[in-house]
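ingest -> validate -> predict -> emit
validate: passed (alphabet ok, no gaps, 273 aa)
predict: started
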Amino acid sequence: MKKLILPAILLVLLALLTACGGGEESNADSKSIKLGGTAGPYSDMLNEAFKPALEEKGYEVEIVEFSDYIQPNNALDNGDLDANLFQHSIYLENFSKENGMDLTGLITVPTAPMGIYSNEFNSIEEIKDGATIAIPNDPVNAARTFLVLQDHGLITLDPAAEELTVSEKDIAENTKNLVFQPIEAGGLPRAVESSDLAAVPGNFALAAEMDLLDALVLEDMPDQYRNLVAVKTENKDTQLAKDLVEMVESPEFEALIDSDFEGFGKPEWMEPR
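emit:
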């Protein structure tokens, strides 16, 4: 009798171990994912475009909204997020290097451009000599401002200066004798009231419920400043990464951008060739 009981016990244990192993494999193959973005247009983009498209592919999608530019990358790095959308490649590279993270951008998406806004003037041509302009006080957004002003003939920059890091000291000619007033970027929408002009990054403009199309001019944004979908580098070749890229490259995604995100500048890969 004892000879029969022992094999039976072994068979039961083997069955239990097999069942547990099958459960672990099922969890590993789970399509439940979390995507993160900052409050405003990019969490809207995740909810309106990414979530429904990925759910059609069988994913269970949760969107996590953040109020700062630090936590989305921390959450991505520690595995609390599978991907995020809120930053451009320059920020991603610098943040990853400074914090010892290995993060990768998969693909750029249409991004709200910086605009030059004014309650004083109705066009660039109307700008008077000595006008004041509020500009961002951080180097990246300040450089963007100076490039916009140069594109529209208001200043000339030293051609030897590095384009993505230009500053006020690189201005070779200030044709309108503009007076620059650097302030924290989040305060720029309010500065439209107190300055003749204000250079407002698109995300801050939209957060303040400004209409991008009310700007005197909008930035012709270099792709380095366009926001991108980011993942941990070790996950850049996963099926999710491939599905994210496929979704962004789809005509349905571009059609939604055209209808719901008017004024957003498209990356070079999306423009007609």
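Residues 1-29 have pLDDT under 50 and may be disordered.
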